[in-house]
């Protein structure tokens, strides 16, 4: 490793623990605003909705910074070998994906996302993003040496966090099918409104 | 239509998520004995320990659960005119159940400092026997010191400082260096009780781990009953003393022989093998012959009777506090403080298919995880409570891998942070299993992560297409 990169890594890595607080805090707040907006059309709920896009942009920027700094804590070889770190990477990646999906959808579609059943889709996305970030945070605590009882809850639900999260080939094929089918369905629905 | 497609898309999304959640961890971890991989059904088990001592002797009592006792081991069965071996070490349980139960204890007095923090992990070196990457027998036998001089045929337990390069099992330091290390106490004492190869005569093997695992000097409690030249046993049962020439295979297969029956061959009950007898199909002779042993290797005995009763083994071992052999045994003294680590073999499994503990402190009438109580008489009354120890299946985790860049905790090891501070036994068992499938799991994990991201992206595209149309 070149010395300047090593210095950079040493400077940045400790800030992972600081940086992760920003997306966690923002996404938790956003989840509350989304819940409020999903069940209410009141002026206050609408006012909350209006700040979603800017704070979600901020959260995604912070999350990307936290995500990248996380890779500097351990050597990549070790990160790819440790089940806890692998799981942390998976849930962090999916947290970011969910919240980016939420941001993109809200940004493109504006306030119409709260019309009809679409509001429940938005609430579902926010819920999944919140669950993911909660698990990510709990795993981060484990890695840092401060485990919580969240891992017991997950074990009760069917996942031992000391076991790398992966799915069998058949589920990967199922996912691949869904990856193709979902946009096709979306395109089909767009072509055949009514 | 849009609303219906929205619902279908949501159903697809939720179904895939639920399927992924409930199938996580499946599809990779499976037994593969060709690669020395066999994962036990249970990954952790309990062990209870008590210790006591008087002026001359120290006693350890062990109790652990086992569905049934395995007291048969390594047999020669007469089959189609030949003597065929059953009960050699194999990956996982021996198919006929011919493999003995065991309990072992590594002991140190502080001379091997890493042992107090990482226990038996420090003895697991490069390309160990029964690892997927095990060194071939020919290679080990050809090693000028371990093979030619010490008669080793496999890479067994050894301590880190006995190698110039810990990543190379063959890089043994000079003999002079080994002697100096041993003189400084750089070895682990190993108490090794076996349900067949020592228990019937009330003995335990006494061994130690240095640059390899050795028996102490003297004679061990068993020797091998096989002539490679004639491909026949050397000894058989003496019919005048035992009323038979051999055991019946059917008695072993149906586990008809219990603790009070003759299921083992003792040297004083054996006679030279007679190849001219009318040997019948299924005649069986133990491939190990028991003897009382001599010298340092016979230092440890069974106190009372070690038996399995109502689902539990109960074994008590006794040894002199100080055997007077400082190069092979760790002497114990009143108020002394030691580190011990345990292992149990059960369910007819041998070699590395055992359950091990993290290091446990032992104090002789001194605060520790296990406190040995002083006694006045010859035998302990065992009135103190048990000390509970959790054992776990260690998988294929070696010391070289733990101190390498592959281990996220390598820097903590460098700083001397004990394993227990960061890891529970349940966690270590899981990690041990994953280490056996490291490459496959890493690949599947990456595919799962990327697949998940693309799946979320595909769902987002679908939603936006559907939402966008509705907006118009």
What's the pLDDT, averaged over the residues of chain B?
A: 96
Strand count, sense and barrel status of the largest sheet of chain B are: 14 strands, mixed
Q: Unreliable runs of chain B, pLDDT <50, ≥5 residues?
A: none
Tally of helical segments of chain B: 11
Shape of chain B: globular
Please state the structural category of chain B: alpha+beta
Q: Which structural class matches the secondary elements of chain A? A: mainly alpha
Q: Would you identify the regions of chain A where 5 or more consecutive residues have pLDDT less than 50?
A: none
| Large-scale geometry of chain A | globular
**What's the story with the biggest beta sheet of chain A?**
none
Percent strand of chain B equals: 15-25%
- How many structural domains in the coordinates of chain B? 2
Report the C-alpha radius of gyration of chain B, rounded: 27 Å
How far apart, in Å, are the first and last alpha carbons of chain B? 15 Å
Termini of chain A, distance in Å? 59 Å
Oligomeric form: heterodimer
- Counting H and I runs of at least 4 residues, what is the number of helices of chain A? 10
